[in-house]
Amino acid sequence: MKKYDDIIVGSGVSGLTLALLLGMNGHKVLLIEKNAHIGGSLRRFYSQGIPFDTGFHFTGGFYKNGILQDMLMVLGIKDDIQPIYLSEEKNNQFVIGQEKTTYNLPTGYQRTREKIKKYFPGEETAIDKYFDMVKSVCNQTAVMDLRKTSMSVSALDEDFLTLDGVLNKLTDNSKLKALLAGYSMCYGVKPQEISFANHSRICYSLYESVARVKDGGDAFIRAFQKRFREFNVEIMHDRYITECVDIQNNCVGRFILNTGEEISCGQCIFTIHPGEVLKTLPENHLSKAFVDRVSAFESSAGFFSVYGVVESPDLIDDFTPTITSLFPTADINQLLDPENSTMPAMVIMQNAEEVNGKSYHVLSALEVSFPEHVEAWKLSKTENRPSDYREYKQQHVISIKERIIEKFPEYKDSFKVIDSASILTFRDYLNSPDGAAYGVKQKIGQFNLFGKLPLRNIYAAGQSSMLPGVVGAMMSSFIVGRTVVGKEKYNHFIEQRLCS
Questions:
Q1: How do beta strands 92-96 and 322-327 pair?
Q2: Could you tell me which of 142, 145, 141, 146 has the C-alpha nearest to residue 21?
Q3: 396, 415, 435: which is the final residue of a domain?
Q4: Cα–Cα nearest to 432, from 303, 259, 275
Q5: Measured between alpha carbons, how far is 47 from 51 in angstroms, rounded to an integer?
Q6: How confident is the model over 73-130, as pLDDT tens digits?
Q7: Which of 41, 57, 54, 13 is nearest to 325 (CA)?
Q8: Distance from the CA of 425 to the CA of which of 166, 169, 472, 490 falls in 20 to 30 A?
């Protein structure tokens, strides 16, 4: 039986971060991944030789003293991750309402604030109040500074206010509210369900800068793999825990894998979906309240995605990445409701990729979707779906392509669909419970699965634990890492890395 200091379950960005963080602190680490490859939704897929992003498309946090920059520096992979900034206003566009009113947002917190005030004259007080509140929340959130990271996060007043409630008090202008809530597509939760505080923590870095990464999530995976070779980090693919045994004093003594292998460790940290964690832990060691709490978590929104290329040499010259968010109504709550009867919200992302010396103008369109939309086929698996599912998928591809051409009529004769994916495709490809894009909903007043669990040597981290996206998932790992490594050693390690 192999013994480790730490076992990390799940190799998305949270698992990768935690494995490297602990390895750099002298721990013998095992990283377990259920799929054949590490990386989770970071990993790109290739179709017809063209790379497409699975779950990581863009991020905030690439700015001086930003937490993402700090985390990459601590991990020693900053130089391996090359941001491609959406530096021009036209590259980050929101189109709202039936009138298709267009708003182009610049980079930079203050510049964004001032641009929105120009779009909405007479609403300056409301806009200033909103941006002041966002910044205040982030300034008071200790975990957004690696030097202050702690498991004991103090709640703010804004943690008990919904985004919807704050916006409704600030203004009656529906389009202004939609624009300020526009980044809700980056966490997949209604404004009436998420706290203003968590909305602020997610959006602040996006207001400062929006960037893609050269080679997408694959760049992160390669950087982590390179660093793993420098430390005592072992990886097992096609593995998952099936049983926790030898439990004494609420500590698991051995873990049995699907292959029959047995392993032991000091700490085991799950970075996977809370529902999957609940399936793995022995129920007789969990309270009914704990089981009920985790079982009650709801899924965030997901997407039906269409992937394609614009086959026109003229359109690839001097091409820069763009993000276009289409909101058919200004009611974001409606757009993030599974029963929405209007046209769904959709995000269109364009970027240039080069493979073996050939350049591609890649376009991906993500239309909001929910598990309820594919309920009829939930028992089916990829490559073995019934004909009515294939018809559903084909109709969505046609509809989404029409929406793309309506927005970009110049692509009428040059846009070619290469592939598509429903929320079920994501579910099966990523071994997730339902294919939701952001794990569980980050609902106001919700006590997420985070940190130490009822079994004393079991922890939880990941985007469902704290905040969704690369930044939130990595932050959760730094917080749990501090507990596992020990406060004093961790603080010394962080200071050394940030000052080196």
A1: parallel
A2: 146
A3: 435
A4: 275
A5: 7
A6: 999 999 999 999 998 899 999 999 999 999 999 989 999 999 999 999 999 999 999 9
A7: 57
A8: 472
Would you say the pTM of this structure is higher than 0.85?
yes
DSSP notation for 254-297: EEEETTS-EEEEEEEEE-S-HHHHHHHS-GGGS-HHHHHHHHTP
Q: CB neighbours of 310 closer than 8 A, spacing ≥ 6?
A: 316, 350, 361, 363, 411, 414, 415, 416
Q: What is the mean pLDDT of the chain?
A: 94
DSSP strand pairing (262-270 vs 2-9)? parallel
Domain boundary, last residue among 184, 208, 232: 208
Q: What's the CATH code of the domain at 65?
A: 3.50.50.60
Pairing of strands 346-355, 322-327: antiparallel
| Pair (312, 423) in one structural domain | yes
Q: Are 359 and 349 in contact (CB under 8 A)?
A: no
- pLDDT at res. 155: 84
Any idea what the Cα angle at residue 359 is, between residues 68 and 210, rounded to 5°? 25
End-to-end CA distance of the chain: 39
Contacts of 319 (CB under 8 A, 6+ apart): 350, 352, 361
Q: State the helix-helix crossing angle for 109-119 and 124-140, rounded to 10 degrees.
A: 160
Domain extent at residue 160: 106-208
Does residue 323 form part of some domain?
yes
Pairing of strands 211-213, 101-104: unpaired
What separation in angstroms does the CA of 324 have from each of 270, 346, 471? Answer: 35, 8, 22
Dist. CA 262–CA 471, nearest whole Å: 33
**Using CA atoms, how far apart are residues 114 and 133, in angstroms rounded to an integer?**
15
- From the centroid of its chain, how far is CA 222? 19
* Residue 97 covered by a domain: no
Residue 317 and residue 248 in one domain: no
DSSP 373-405: GGGGGTT-BTTB--HHHHHHHHHHHHHHHHHHH
- Kind of pairing between the strands at 415-421 and 302-310: antiparallel
User: Residue 199: which pLDDT band, with cuts at 50, 70 and 90?
Assistant: very high
What is the model's pLDDT at position 382? Answer: 85
Where is 168: in which H helix or E strand?
A: helix 163-170
How many helices (H) and strands (E) would you count in the chain? 16, 19
**Tokens 């004991």 — which residue?**
152
Strand segments, DSSP code E, in 10-132 are: 29-32, 45-47, 50-52, 83-85, 92-96, 101-104
- Report the CATH number that the domain containing residue 120 is assigned in CATH: 1.10.405
* Residues 448-482: tens digit of each pLDDT: 999 999 999 999 999 999 899 999 999 999 999 99
